[in-house]
Amino acid sequence: MSGHSKWATTKHKKGAKDQARAKQFAKLIRQVEVAAREGGGDINANASLRTMYTKARDASVPLDTIERAIKRGTGELEGVRYEAVSYEGYAPSGVAVIVETLTDNRNRTGADIRNIFSKGGGSMAEPGAVSWQFERRGVLLFPKTSDEEQLLEAALEAGADNLVEDGDHWKVTCAPSDVGGIKDSLEQAGLVADSAEPSLEPTQVVVVGDEGDAHKVLRLLDALDDLDDTQGVHANYDIPEAFLVAFEG
Predict the structure, then answer these.
(1) Which of 41, 144, 206, 223 qualifies as a FRET site for 1, CA 20 to 30 Å off?
(2) Burial of 232 (0-12, 13-18, 19+ CB in 10 A)
(3) 95-103 vs 83-91, strand pairing mode
């Protein structure tokens, strides 16, 4: 089971219990705003905006809040200008980590992330030191209750590249820009994803076979994910399902 999928599942379960919905909304709104600034405010012409718009709606962000974010992105409304900055590092056990952020102050964000790595037993790395171990893909996770043959047929017809078993999910991969369209096509076929987003997928994984070390890795990732400026955390770990369940508990 890949690091991405386990972390996406962990976030999905964590999000269902998370009372800090305002923080989740703020992150999604920031993503919408930046996507609109970079590619325009038309969700039909801007694939990135369409994906972020769908994520925000799936999380129950109010429509008028999303629309205001789009207008801030296109300059119709005044707003803070965010910059996309990625940080690389290592978690305990040599697990490679990439943190994607949107920030209005890269010095503050960099210091915050360095502090989290240090306190969590990890270390920051130079740009490019770990990114070669990842590739950008679109990832859709479907519950294992979904019919495999139906899902495979529908996913390939919609333009996906592959379907693999991934723990308690089926994982569909595709080009990052195709996530929104494939998600919509599969929903029309009655197949609803637990998560659907562009991601950095590891090309190789680090097996963490000790439960104590596994929990150190997960605590570090959790702390990085909770940072207000963080938009995505990607890691190349492979942790036994039992360790993950114990951590969630």
Answers:
(1) 223
(2) buried
(3) antiparallel
**Torsion angle of C-alpha atoms 209, 215, 221, 227, degrees rounded to 10:** 180
Handedness of CA 236, 226, 165, 198 (dihedral sign): negative
CB-CB contact of 28 with 56 (8 Å):
yes
- The order of strands in the sheet holding 230-235 is 123-125, 83-91, 95-103, 230-235
Query: Could you report the per-residue pLDDT of 111-126, keeping only the tens digit for each?
Result: 999 999 999 999 999 9
Confidence of residue 95 (pLDDT cuts 50, 70, 90): very high
Tally Cβ neighbours within 10 Å of residue 39: 17
Which helix (DSSP H) or strand (DSSP E) does residue 59 occupy?
none
Q: Which fold has domain 134-202?
A: Alpha-Beta Plaits (3.30.70)
Measured at the CA of 44, the angle between CA 43 and CA 46, to 5 degrees, comes to 60
Q: Tell me, what's the pLDDT at 78? A: 87
Q: If DSSP codes are grouped into helix, strand and coil, which group holds residue 67?
A: helix
